[in-house]
């Protein structure tokens, strides 16, 4: 469920009309709903009540300080993939002792920082990494809590750029090699073997792949638990969300619940996985990003020009691939709606940004309501992997972010001033 809905013709975020935000703060503009973030967190947390568990929000999906603070207040832990993300979590008031540090390329400096801060676990992805963590821990006279990421070699049935649990990609340690690796790691004196981790991919909309992976890995986890006294099993993130409505219906079908559309829900996920996890008697960690933040955010944009070429209608908007790269990067679908709903015929349109790349589009030949120059559109489901992937390409500012909570509105990131984009650049002295 999310809190973006029409009241009459006007699209609201919770109790705030989005057009009002677009006019007040300008576009492109990210808007987040705190009730939606909290609702998704609670839904998953409640569904998993049958096992001792910790939801670790994947910071990389949306790392705004206010988003992190709102989740920390609900008791969330955090899945981090860099020292920078750990700094953010701390700045937002999150607890490092509830942080899982993931990623294939942790640097010496990042490991040292995370060790000093006391993260809950380093989820290691290779043997050389375990040696590096052990060496740094020895130097700091600490024992580093670690888990190894198991690659279960299952197909997640998702886009190839976000599949992580097969042997074709760089993630984790092959299932068959994991036990021997734990045996060797057990001899490294400054490691504390705390758990096992896996993550099979992102935007997985069926329970099947999760169940398959847990079924495959659970016996291994039980053996490692008995041998090394493990404390947790992290089953990763990857729960998918609804991006694409059933187009035929005419009314924006993104109202329809995931359950009604037959895709994964926390209830289905828990119903299938909890019975497999309970017998292990371990603490279960989850690392959802998109599930919590995805449908909690929209990107507002203004129609600058309408360009008709005879063959095509282009809506040229003021947001671009530097603000939201998912369509260009992953062929991702974002539902596009008008902030002022009206009936009438739809026109096949391409919504494109101003950047000088033909990949800079948000949709092609999609039937959209007729709009006029100066009107606003919302790209839905932009709360995950949206703003965080923003860049300054074409010397465009990072878009501001607004958080809504009921009637309340806060600017949680200001629009980046153009001068700030090149503030750290210099003219070489011989060019002066
Ligand atoms: C990206 C990532 C996640 C979050 O994935 P979502 O699809 O956003 O839930 C969780 N765990 C790890 C290790 C990741 O790399």
Q: What keyword list fits this structure?
A:
single chain; eight-stranded parallel β-barrel; 21 strands; TIM Barrel; 432 residues; Lyase, Ornithine Decarboxylase, Chain A, domain 1; alpha/beta; 2 domains; 12 helices; binds pyridoxal-5'-phosphate; nine-stranded mixed sheet
Please provide a written account of the structure.
This protein has about 425 residues and is α/β, with parallel strands linked by helices. The protein has 2 domains: about 250 residues, Alanine racemase (TIM Barrel); about 130 residues, Beta Barrel (Lyase, Ornithine Decarboxylase, Chain A, domain 1), CATH 2.40.37. Helix content is about 25%, strand content about 25%. The protein is built from 12 helices and 21 strands. Strands 4, 14, 15, 16, 17, 18, 19, 20 and 21 form a 9-stranded mixed β-sheet that branches. It has an 8-stranded parallel β-barrel with strand order 5-6-7-8-9-11-12-13, surrounded by 7 helices. α5 packs across α6 and α8 runs parallel beside α9. The longest helix is centred in the middle third of the chain and has 21 residues. The chain is globular and about 70 Å long. About 0% of the residues have low confidence. Bound molecules: pyridoxal-5'-phosphate. Pyridoxal-5'-phosphate binds next to α10.
């Amino acid at each position: 469920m999310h809190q973006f809905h029409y009241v009459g013709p006007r699209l609201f975020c919770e109790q705030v009309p989005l057009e009002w935000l677009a006019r007040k703060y300008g576009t492109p503009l990210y808007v987040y709903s705190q009730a939606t973030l909290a609702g998704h967190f609670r839904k998953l947390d409640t569904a998993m009540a049958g096992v001792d568990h910790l939801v670790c929000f994947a910071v990389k999906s949306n790392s705004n300080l206010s988003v992190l603070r709102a989740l920390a207040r609900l008791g969330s832990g955090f899945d981090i993939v860099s020292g920078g993300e750990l700094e953010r979590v701390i700045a937002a008031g999150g607890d490092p002792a509830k942080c899982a540090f993931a990623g294939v390329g942790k640097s010496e400096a990042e490991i040292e920082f995370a060790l000093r801060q006391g993260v809950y676990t380093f989820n290691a992805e290779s043997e050389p990494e375990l040696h590096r963590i052990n060496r740094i821990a020895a130097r700091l006279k600490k024992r580093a809590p670690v888990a190894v990421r198991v690659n279960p070699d299952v197909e997640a049935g998702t886009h190839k750029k976000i599949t992580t649990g097969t042997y074709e990609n760089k993630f984790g340690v092959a299932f068959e090699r994991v036990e021997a690796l734990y045996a060797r790691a057990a001899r490294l004196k400054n490691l504390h073997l705390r758990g096992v981790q896996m993550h099979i991919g992102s935007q997985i909309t069926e329970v099947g792949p999760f169940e398959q992976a847990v079924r495959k890995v659970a016996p291994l986890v039980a053996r490692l638990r008995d041998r090394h006294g493990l404390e947790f099993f992290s089953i990763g993130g990857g729960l998918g969300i609804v991006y694409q409505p059933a187009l035929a219906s005419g009314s924006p079908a993104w109202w329809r619940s995931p359950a009604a559309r037959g895709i994964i829900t926390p209830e289905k996920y828990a119903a299938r996985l909890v019975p497999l996890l309970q017998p292990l008697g371990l603490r279960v960690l989850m690392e959802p990003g998109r599930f919590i933040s995805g449908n909690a955010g929209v990107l507002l944009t203004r129609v600058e020009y309408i360009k008709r070429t005879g063959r095509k209608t282009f809506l040229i908007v003021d947001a671009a691939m530097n603000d939201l790269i998912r369509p260009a990067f992953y062929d991702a679908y974002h539902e596009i709606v008008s902030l002022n709903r009206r009936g009438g015929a739809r026109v096949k349109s391409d919504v494109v940004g101003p950047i000088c790349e033909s990949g800079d589009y948000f949709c092609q030949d999609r039937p959209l309501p007729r709009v006029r120059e100066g009107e606003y559109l919302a790209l839905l489901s932009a709360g995950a992997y949206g703003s965080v992937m923003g860049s300054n390409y074409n010397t465009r500012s990072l878009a501001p972010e607004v958080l809504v909570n009921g009637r309340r509105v806060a600017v949680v990131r200001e629009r980046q001033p153009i001068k700030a984009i090149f503030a750290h650049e210099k003219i070489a002295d011989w060019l002066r």
